[in-house]
Automatic annotation (TrEMBL):
Domain of life, per lineage: Eukaryota
Domain Mitochondrial splicing suppressor 51-like C-terminal: 61-212
Protein name: Uncharacterized protein LOC112452937
InterPro entries documented for this protein: Mss51-like_C
Length: 214
């Protein structure tokens, strides 16, 4: 297990990745941290601060893994391509957490995370230390990525707090409508997270309106 002794900075994921599996059937972030990390501090406040700090690296991969379990969509014997849409610098910040995702889905096949968003800082292509996990970043709207020569068909699409409701449909600043239509055409699961339940309801209403379902 990884011992966190109150230091600041990013956790050393490599120290405990080999201990992470799906066998624990954790129910929330705190369960996961308690199962896999030994936070060595006498202060409850400091402990909670550390849990919050390090959970930033794991929120996206654990959320996606939980959703895939609910959908019974965890391929074991094929390469997986995942599109992360509406991405921003928070996805770049949490890269090391995706090593956990690879361990949790327990696959020896390659996983490619294609991260797309107009607010990304750069276009990059990189391999993690585990050669089965690859990241491709594209600084563009999803509709432009789908129409580009770089497009790779996804097995699953996810948007983490993508702010689909940020601008009113039909306004000059609204950019999601074309992308939502193209996401629907990929014929694969689309997992969407929102910061609150009310925001999620607004965003699903917007998606249904774009797709002519209401």
């Amino acid at each position: 297990l990884l011992a966190i002794r109150g230091e600041t900075g990013s956790p050393d994921m490599r120290c405990y990745l080999r201990h992470v599996t799906d066998e624990g059937k954790f129910q929330n972030m705190k369960d996961f941290i308690n199962a896999h990390w030994n936070i060595s501090t006498d202060s409850e406040m400091q402990r909670n601060i550390l849990i919050g700090q390090y959970s930033l690296y794991m929120t996206c991969p654990l959320t996606l893994f939980h959703a895939m379990r609910l959908l019974n969509c965890v391929p074991k014997n094929k390469a997986i391509v995942i599109h992360v849409v509406g991405a921003n610098d928070s996805e770049e910040f949490s890269l090391m957490g995706w090593e956990i995702f690879l361990r949790l889905i327990e696959t020896a096949m390659p996983v490619t995370m294609i991260v797309i968003g107009s607010n990304l800082q750069r276009n990059i292509h990189m391999l993690s230390e585990n050669k089965n996990l690859k990241f491709d970043f594209y600084d563009m709207l999803y509709e432009n990525y789908v129409r580009s020569s770089s497009f790779v068909k996804p097995d699953l699409i996810v948007g983490f707090n993508s702010c689909i409701d940020q601008h009113k449909l039909g306004s000059s600043k609204e950019t999601w409508a074309p992308s939502i239509k193209l996401i629907a055409k990929q014929n694969c699961p689309f997992i969407l997270t929102s910061p609150t339940l009310s925001t999620f309801k607004k965003e699903t209403d917007i998606i249904n309106t774009i797709l002519g379902r209401k």
